Each structure stands twice: as structure tokens, then as C-alpha cells.
Amino acid sequence: MGKRIYIYRSGATDNCALTGTKNDARLPSAPAPDNWRFWMQIGPLQAQGGRCGFDVRAAVHGIKTQGYYLFKGSRTLLRERPAVASSLLSQGGRSHA
């Protein structure tokens, strides 16, 4: 696994998935209209803080064996992204995270 972990969210639910590669095609299909959408990317140290709602060891194992790891996102994780989304729009969709 690389230096980044990519978090995807299924619609407005708390269902989330992690991948080690952005836009990994191995994500399981999500029922429409709750398709997976990129939520944010984090580094290993951010993942270990516990604010995201997943176990780092289990996530790394899942990503290495099947390409993704499914989990229920924490309230902190799920409320953080909308502020970032508005700043991304003003930057033309690029993230510097």
C-alpha cells in the first residue's frame, strides 16, 4: 500500500470504502443512487488517529487482499468533507492534501 489512503462514500450514507489507489476499479458495486464517490484522501498518521471510524490493521489487510476495505464512517469523518468540497470547487477540483 502506498503513502495515501483514499476514502469513498456511498451516497449520503455512512457506508465508506478505503482503497490504496485512487479510482480503484475493484470497489464493490453500490446500489443506485448511492454509488461510490471520492470523499477524501488521508495519510497513514491521520488514519491512526481513530477519527475516521476504521481499524487501520484490518483496513490495510483488506486493501492488500481484495483492493478495498468497507467500513461505517465516523461522524467526524462524514462531516469534514463538505467544507473541503467548496474549496475544491474554487480551485478547479484539485486537492493539495
Assign a percent range to the helix content. 25-40%
The span between the termini is 18 Å
The 3D shape can be described as globular
The major beta sheet can be summarized as: 4 strands, antiparallel
For the secondary structure, the number of strands is: 4
Radius of gyration (Å):
13 Å
Helical/strand content category: alpha+beta
Which residues sit in consecutive blocks of at least 5 with pLDDT less than 50? 82-97
Domain count, please report it: 1
Oligomer: single chain
- Secondary-structure element pattern, one letter each: EEEHHEH
Average of per-residue pLDDT values:
79
Strands side by side in the biggest sheet: 3-1-2-4
Report the sheet-strand fraction: 15-25%
Count of helix runs: 3
Structure description:
There is one protein chain. This protein is α+β, with helices and mostly antiparallel strands and 97 residues long. The protein has one domain (5-90). Helices cover 33% and strands 23% of the residues. It has three helices and four strands. The protein has helices at residues 44-48, 56-66, 75-90, and strands spanning 5-10, 15-19, 36-42, 69-72. Strands 3-1-2-4 form a four-stranded antiparallel beta sheet. The two termini are 18 Å apart. Mean pLDDT is 79; it is low at 82-97.
